[in-house]
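Lecture 7, part B: from sequences to assemblies.

Below are the input chains for today's worked example.
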Amino acid sequence: MLNKFPLWKNLLVIVVIAVAALYALPNLYGEDYAVQVSATRTTSIDNTTLGQVEQALQAAQIVPKSVVIEGDQVLVRVANDTDQLQARDTLMKALGNQYVVALNLAAATPDWLASIGAEPLKLGLDLRGGVHFLMEVDMAEAVRKIQDQLRDSVRSELREQRIRYTAVNRDGNDVIISLRSADDFSAAESFLNNRYPGYDEINDSDANTIRLRMTETKLRETQDYAISQNVTILRNRVNELGVAEPLVQRQGAERIVVQLPGVQDTARAKEILGATATLEFRLLDSDNSVIEAERGRVPFGSELFPNRNGGNALLKEDVILTGDHIVNATAGFDEYQRPQVSISLDGAGGDKMSLATRDNVGKPMATLFIEYKATGERDANGKLVFEPLSEVINVATINSRLGSNFRITGISSQQEAQNLALLLRAGALIAPIQIVEERTIGPSLGQENIDMGMQAIVWGFVLVLVFMVVYYRKFGLVANAALAANLVLIIGIMSMIPGATLTLPGMAGIVLTVGMAVDANVLIFERIREEIKAKRSPQQAIHHGYDSALSTIADANITTLIAAIILFAVGTGPIKGFAVTLAIGIITSMFTAIVGTRAIINAIWGGKRIDKLSV
Amino acid sequence: MNELISTDRSIPFMRYRLPAMVLSIILVLASITSLAVNKLNWGLDFTGGTVIELGYQQNADLGQIRSVLEQNGFNSAVVQNFGSQRDVLIRLDSIEGVKAQELGDQVVAMMRANSSETIDLRRSEFVSASVGAELAEQGGLALLTALICILIYIAIRFEWRLALGAVGALAHDVIITLGLFSVLQLEFDLTVLAALLAVIGYSINDTVVVCDRIRENFLKFRKYSSEEVIDGAITNTMSRTVITSLTTILVLLALFFMGGQLIHGFATALLFGVFIGTYSSIFVASSLAFMLGISREDLLPPEIDKEGEDLEPLP
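Predicted structure of the full complex, as structure tokens:
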């Protein structure tokens, strides 16, 4: 019979819309004010922590809605924002700096919905407020550091092998070894052969030099490592800031995106994220005179650095230890109530330190603090030029053989000690980074954007609904039902996709979809009208109307989809949000406008004798 | 039946193709001239720099803000109201001696120190010049890729003359919309670029509907001339074209008036783009295909050789 849907098709429509509605449902429940407590590297979250949190809240007479462990954090839901702030302060005091306490908004999704994985839409930074950073990693510096390490280890290994060299130096991306004699050259040649994976040896027997050249693979590995190390360290630093749901993600070959929802104090955030610092422990060169070096006669194997307290210090070129071995660093006071930083090293770092200090007890060791600051200039390749600002922050006598735990004293202020400890704790970056893009949205503007976006959606929706009813009457009502179903589908699907976030342009995309989604129905209805004019029976008109409009709708939508996909591929942040809603809207609107409306029309008019259609 | 446009008789669109062409060419040339002379008012996303939006409790005194900035050596700052009298937008280019990414924080601190009321930092954006240049390059590339992909799709799905006509119409829409932004010196930022791509999506939607009908009518009416067939197809789809444009313009008006300042450029570009896109899918796309000499034979489904057909029958 004409215009009757088989049962399975009707069921399909109902099931699809019902599932989408179910997953769109959490968006109606809103959010609770919450405080989240997460562990730092030295602690973990367990039932003891939960007990501590509950006790502290009770003591402060805050009645939480709930206190639960969710994943690796304790989530405290409270009734309002006053309680939220109070709860945060209470918990910060009670738990100390072993835990990170952050404000958050937790979805108030009922358990039965949460259990099927239904969650409200994630809002982009432009809607919830916060900071977005794009950071660029200095790859040249990463490579330079690796080469420096190689140079140091070549030097010490050749010494151990009693192979005499005149110089081991870095030359661009290579390390050049000049040997004293032909005998040393051949000894070095056989010793170095395939000793360093990732390097090709280029031997020159006439000049008695061996050049170690980094292979392409090694170069790529180094760059990958520099990025992933930066990502890890930024994550740690972000945790120090106490932000709920931060995002730290690699983007492309040398960039990292950092998103901090809810953060307002961008200056502090930048200081902590942007200040790349490395720490190096080196022996002081006390055999040579600083004054001579200041006149430009720096002895071989030593380097001159400024001292924070004025003057200069002459340090050995060999680095005992770099900051990446640091596991933990805490600020405190020594027995004379002077600020200090206690440092713990990892196993390898402890061994190195122990080995280096064994024969040097009583000698001075310097702590060199290196910060990389961008000069603001770019080299020929368009890469940022970074300038290392090295400063000796402390010279202390090695009182005993040092192990995995030791402390730096002689820091000028408590604030300074805390800053240093924070940077050290978060580790040291192999390559410096620079902020190349920053976008901050205040909370008031975020809320305003949500309100305005919603208003635009509602008004656009209502205007289209009214127009369709006036123009197409009963068929217009059917199209309106499809339009409403389309909105539910878009929101449901967006909530289902884990990575999808709703942004302000995304909301604009929804508004635009509302306007364009009726297009398919307009096409169909116009066809039906034509068929009626051509004196077909109403049933025939419906049947042919849908049939002949189908390929047009498909062609028209596929081309729009192409534009949306390209937009997604090249767009960033909010623009991606627009592309996502547009693409989802196109697909869902085809479903609701073709299959959805047909199901309703078939159910109402299909298979009956009718003389006139209300279209 | 309510009808906006009577479609009982074919409207002779092709007869107006020359005046329409002249109008289009004038508009495109004017747009290109304006783009060359006035350039576009590139937004922060593409030029790089710093923008800060501050919210004051009372109407903000722009003169006082400017003088505070000048006293501190920020002479190149542009200060203006944004949306309301209480919102102030400050735009800065890079300033010597100040690290670009710290500029925003400094200005906010400066304003707070020089004002008795609490100032709300509504928004602050910093884009480095290199990122800006990259975004501009990517954006241009995106527009081109979109046009080429659509050209290929329509050439495969329809026919190269229609494809050229459609893409010609798209380029026409994009150029004239850009021209409008250039003439009125509206700020061209990333959202406007997104809107341009949406205009491409919308306009192609419109054009495909017309092309589809042209093909269908060519196959259905054998005796009519190309001109009559095209006129008929445009007339058939006319009410659909107008109604869809109308609903889209309705929602865009909602966006324009309700969506807030940040979406204004986006809504403006789309409103104008939809308008010009509707015009171009009626007059430009089909006129171009017609002038390229499209005929019934070009749109016949390709004949499929039956297997073994070419072989000589066995003796």
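Note for the exam: Chain B has a mean pLDDT of 85. Keep this in mind when comparing with the next example.
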